[in-house]
Design brief:
eight-stranded antiparallel sheet, 2 domains, elongated, about 20% helix, Lipocalin, single chain, alpha+beta, eight-stranded antiparallel β-barrel
Length: about 250
């Protein structure tokens, strides 16, 4: 009788365990591919990021129960805990939290009162182990948005072929070695409705306004409309380069 009771209880436990979906390991770096794909259509960059954001990248470590995300401006750390149905919950310092779950090979950030539902895919980008959070997303975005060969139609270096590398280097654009696309934060506040990027040669660099329309890219000087003690408010000045994608 006792043996039968033990077997009965064991069967109940096993059935209960079987009814709980397997909890898959979600460790690794996940990027917002939907935002990258939208940007790759060749339109306004920040509109694409806002439409499919705001979060751009997750870095998750199940073993150490941590999860970090970035929205292109700030990096936020949370504590990772198991949740019902094989999902995970990320609790942030304070009272807010968000749920993460897998649908096939896609990581889903659940909708909250503050943010929409967002899908992420595992990053295939190779970056340095000590690279800042968001580097994988930026690298993939650079390749999708500005990758390939361009030709200077007007401006310094007319006729040059220009290449924007995924790691932020640029060749063929006179007096420019590196670039950084503005994704969010102060640079976005300073450029308002316009897209902007930073162009640098050695230790010298400056913000520029740009307009992407399909296979055409126009880069303007960034003029400042703010008062001397206020945050800069950039607007497009002189057209410096007009480029066409080959």
């Amino acid at each position: 009788m006792r043996k039968a009771l033990v077997l009965s209880l064991l069967s109940i436990v096993l059935v209960g365990c079987a009814s709980e979906p397997a909890r898959r390991d979600i460790s690794g770096v996940w990027i917002n591919q939907a935002a990258i794909d939208a940007a790759a259509n060749g339109g306004n960059l920040r509109e694409a990021l806002l439409a499919y954001g705001p979060n751009l990248e997750w870095d998750i470590d199940v073993k150490n129960a941590t999860a970090h995300y970035t929205n292109g401006f700030e990096s936020v750390e949370g504590k990772l805990l198991p949740a019902d149905g094989g999902a995970w919950q990320v609790s942030f310092y304070g009272s807010s939290s968000t749920d993460l779950s897998l649908e096939g090979e896609t990581l889903i950030q659940a909708e909250t009162d503050a943010e929409p539902r967002q899908p992420f895919v595992r990053s295939q980008v190779k970056v340095a182990s000590d690279a800042p959070l968001g580097t994988s997303f930026e690298t993939a975005l650079n390749a999708a948005y500005l990758g390939g060969q361009w030709r200077v139609l007007s401006g310094a270096g007319k006729g040059n072929q220009v290449a924007f590398s995924a790691d932020g280097q640029v060749t063929g654009l006179p007096n420019t070695q590196n670039y950084v696309l503005c994704l969010a934060g102060d640079c976005a506040s300073m450029s308002g409705e316009y897209d902007s990027l930073w162009l640098q040669q050695g230790e010298t660099g400056a913000a520029h306004i740009f307009v992407r329309d399909g296979r055409k890219l126009e880069i303007f000087q960034a003029l400042d409309a703010s008062a001397p003690d206020d945050m800069p408010q950039f607007y497009p000045g002189k057209l410096e380069w007009s480029l066409e994608k080959l």
